[in-house]
Protein backbone atom coordinates (compact mmCIF):
# COMPACT_ATOMS: atom_id res chain seq x y z
CA UNK A 1 0.00 0.00 0.00
CA UNK A 2 1.17 3.49 -0.79
CA UNK A 3 2.29 5.94 1.89
CA UNK A 4 1.22 9.08 0.06
CA UNK A 5 -2.28 10.28 0.91
CA UNK A 6 -3.32 11.03 -2.67
CA UNK A 7 -2.12 7.60 -3.80
CA UNK A 8 -4.09 5.92 -1.01
CA UNK A 9 -7.20 7.72 -2.29
CA UNK A 10 -6.31 6.72 -5.87
CA UNK A 11 -6.07 3.04 -4.90
CA UNK A 12 -9.51 3.25 -3.28
CA UNK A 13 -11.16 4.99 -6.23
CA UNK A 14 -9.54 2.59 -8.69
CA UNK A 15 -10.91 -0.35 -6.71
CA UNK A 16 -14.41 1.16 -6.78
CA UNK A 17 -14.19 1.89 -10.48
CA UNK A 18 -12.88 -1.59 -11.26
CA UNK A 19 -15.78 -3.14 -9.37
CA UNK A 20 -18.30 -0.95 -11.20
CA UNK A 21 -16.76 -1.72 -14.59
CA UNK A 22 -16.81 -5.42 -13.80
CA UNK A 23 -20.54 -5.21 -13.08
CA UNK A 24 -21.23 -3.31 -16.33
CA UNK A 25 -19.23 -5.80 -18.38
CA UNK A 26 -20.96 -8.73 -16.74
CA UNK A 27 -24.36 -7.27 -17.57
CA UNK A 28 -23.24 -6.64 -21.16
CA UNK A 29 -22.14 -10.25 -21.56
CA UNK A 30 -25.46 -11.42 -20.12
CA UNK A 31 -27.52 -9.44 -22.64
CA UNK A 32 -25.30 -10.47 -25.56
CA UNK A 33 -25.66 -14.11 -24.47
CA UNK A 34 -29.45 -13.72 -24.23
CA UNK A 35 -29.49 -12.36 -27.78
CA UNK A 36 -27.33 -15.24 -29.00
CA UNK A 37 -29.57 -17.80 -27.29
CA UNK A 38 -32.69 -16.25 -28.81
CA UNK A 39 -31.07 -16.11 -32.25
CA UNK A 40 -29.98 -19.75 -31.96
CA UNK A 41 -33.49 -20.85 -31.11
CA UNK A 42 -34.91 -18.81 -34.03
CA UNK A 43 -37.24 -16.77 -31.81
CA UNK A 44 -37.31 -13.48 -33.72
CA UNK A 45 -39.36 -11.51 -31.16
CA UNK A 46 -37.11 -12.48 -28.26
CA UNK A 47 -34.05 -11.82 -30.41
CA UNK A 48 -35.37 -8.38 -31.37
CA UNK A 49 -36.00 -7.49 -27.73
CA UNK A 50 -32.60 -8.76 -26.65
CA UNK A 51 -30.90 -6.93 -29.54
CA UNK A 52 -32.53 -3.66 -28.55
CA UNK A 53 -31.65 -4.07 -24.88
CA UNK A 54 -28.08 -5.18 -25.62
CA UNK A 55 -27.55 -2.22 -27.97
CA UNK A 56 -28.76 0.17 -25.29
CA UNK A 57 -26.48 -1.43 -22.70
CA UNK A 58 -23.51 -1.22 -25.08
CA UNK A 59 -24.14 2.47 -25.71
CA UNK A 60 -24.42 3.11 -21.99
CA UNK A 61 -21.15 1.27 -21.34
CA UNK A 62 -19.44 3.47 -23.93
CA UNK A 63 -20.79 6.63 -22.31
CA UNK A 64 -19.52 5.43 -18.92
CA UNK A 65 -16.10 4.69 -20.38
CA UNK A 66 -16.29 0.97 -19.65
CA UNK A 67 -15.62 -0.15 -23.22
CA UNK A 68 -14.31 1.56 -26.33
CA UNK A 69 -16.81 2.97 -28.82
CA UNK A 70 -15.43 0.84 -31.66
CA UNK A 71 -15.85 -2.33 -29.63
CA UNK A 72 -19.50 -1.48 -29.01
CA UNK A 73 -20.03 -0.65 -32.68
CA UNK A 74 -18.48 -3.96 -33.75
CA UNK A 75 -20.63 -5.95 -31.33
CA UNK A 76 -23.81 -4.12 -32.38
CA UNK A 77 -22.99 -4.64 -36.04
CA UNK A 78 -22.36 -8.35 -35.55
CA UNK A 79 -25.62 -8.76 -33.63
CA UNK A 80 -27.56 -6.84 -36.29
CA UNK A 81 -26.09 -9.03 -39.04
CA UNK A 82 -26.97 -12.13 -37.06
CA UNK A 83 -30.52 -10.84 -36.47
CA UNK A 84 -31.02 -10.13 -40.17
CA UNK A 85 -29.74 -13.58 -41.09
CA UNK A 86 -32.32 -15.41 -38.95
CA UNK A 87 -35.06 -14.13 -41.22
CA UNK A 88 -36.44 -11.14 -39.37
Automatic annotation (TrEMBL):
<dbReference type="InterPro" id="IPR036510">
    <property type="entry name" value="Ribosomal_bS20_sf"/>
</dbReference>
<keyword id="KW-0699">rRNA-binding</keyword>
<comment type="function">
    <text>Binds directly to 16S ribosomal RNA.</text>
</comment>
<keyword id="KW-0689">Ribosomal protein</keyword>
<feature type="region of interest" description="Disordered">
    <location>
        <begin position="1"/>
        <end position="20"/>
    </location>
</feature>
<protein>
    <recommendedName>
        <fullName>Small ribosomal subunit protein bS20</fullName>
    </recommendedName>
</protein>
<keyword id="KW-0687">Ribonucleoprotein</keyword>
<dbReference type="Pfam" id="PF01649">
    <property type="entry name" value="Ribosomal_S20p"/>
</dbReference>
<dbReference type="GO" id="GO:0005840">
    <property type="term" value="C:ribosome"/>
</dbReference>
<comment type="similarity">
    <text>Belongs to the bacterial ribosomal protein bS20 family.</text>
</comment>
<keyword id="KW-0694">RNA-binding</keyword>
<dbReference type="InterPro" id="IPR002583">
    <property type="entry name" value="Ribosomal_bS20"/>
</dbReference>
Amino acid sequence: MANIKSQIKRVKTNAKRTERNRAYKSELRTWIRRFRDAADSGDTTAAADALKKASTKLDKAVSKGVIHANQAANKKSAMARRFNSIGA
